[in-house]
């Protein structure tokens, strides 16, 4: 289900999803979006002089969810608004470094750029990485974190500038910032919504924000990832499955057992089988996938 280069800018239409009968077409999340603006038109709208704090830019194998096993360029943002107890990138939650560490190719010596980073400097790093990729192994670009949507103006400008490389752009986000998603949605191809469970976070999160986020994300291609700990309950999982299914039962959902971190432990294999079966009552594409890059010893 990897994105096809000829369909990068295809938007969702009623032919690919079930149309709710209780919504006027113009208010439906599946209503066909008008033709995408050109890069030139978008450049007139964005602030190419924006800056944002980053941690690193590198290329490696994607170890999670839909694009698992494919090589991506990762642009990691600094800063997060959730502070997950099981976070596997604690550096992204600390004060941003004075410089952004960059690596043009796996195994080669790295270099740095100034931080907060300028859009044009990040684009130059990506261009350098693609020059090294003579085999064409790099599949796509991932904006990850931390939380990229803390910096929507920078993300909008950066993704617009990255379109020149003809690679799919994936936004990885906690799925809790619908207002900021709306500012960048036209510039990305895929939205990876990493929904957090209340049991793992130790507090209740805003289901309304999550629902609106997923509704907006229907205008592009979207999938949901759920990191599961041993504290997860049937009740809360059923609530999340229902929320997703009410908006789009065809949305791919990935159940990811947490990689043990501190006091966070993964659920049993039998629980994972049972929870996937629960999800399949209302959802069409549910998969259980651990963090593969951790098994491979990759970042």
């Amino acid at each position: 289900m990897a994105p096809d280069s000829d369909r990068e800018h295809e938007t969702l239409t009623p032919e690919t999803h079930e149309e709710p009968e209780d919504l006027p077409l113009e208010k439906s999340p599946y209503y066909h979006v008008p033709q995408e603006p050109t890069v030139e038109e978008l450049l007139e709208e964005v602030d190419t002089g924006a800056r944002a704090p980053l941690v690193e830019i590198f290329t490696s194998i994607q170890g999670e969810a839909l694009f698992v096993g494919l090589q991506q360029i990762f642009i990691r943002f600094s800063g997060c608004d959730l502070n997950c107890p099981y976070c596997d990138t604690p550096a992204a939650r600390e004060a941003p470094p004075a410089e952004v560490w960059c690596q043009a190719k796996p195994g080669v010596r790295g270099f740095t750029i100034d931080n907060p980073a300028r859009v044009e400097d990040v684009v130059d790093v990506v261009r350098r990485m693609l020059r090294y990729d003579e085999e064409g192994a790099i599949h796509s670009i991932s904006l990850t974190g931390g939380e990229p949507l803390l910096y929507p103006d920078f993300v909008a400008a950066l993704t617009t500038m990255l379109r020149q490389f003809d690679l799919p752009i994936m936004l990885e986000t906690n799925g809790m910032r619908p207002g900021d998603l709306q500012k960048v949605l036209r510039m990305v191809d895929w939205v990876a919504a990493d929904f957090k469970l209340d049991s793992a976070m130790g507090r209740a999160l805003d289901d309304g924000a999550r629902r609106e986020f997923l509704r907006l994300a229907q205008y592009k291609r979207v999938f949901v990832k759920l990191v599961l700990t041993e504290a997860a309950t049937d009740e809360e999982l059923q609530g999340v499955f229902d929320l997703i299914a009410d908006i789009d039962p065809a949305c791919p959902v990935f159940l990811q057992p947490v990689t043990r971190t501190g006091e966070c432990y993964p659920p049993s294999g039998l629980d994972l089988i049972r929870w996937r079966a629960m999800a399949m009552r209302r959802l069409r594409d549910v998969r259980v996938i651990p963090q593969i890059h951790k098994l491979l010893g990759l970042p």
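The radius of gyration is 19 Å. DSSP finds nine helices and twelve strands in the chain.
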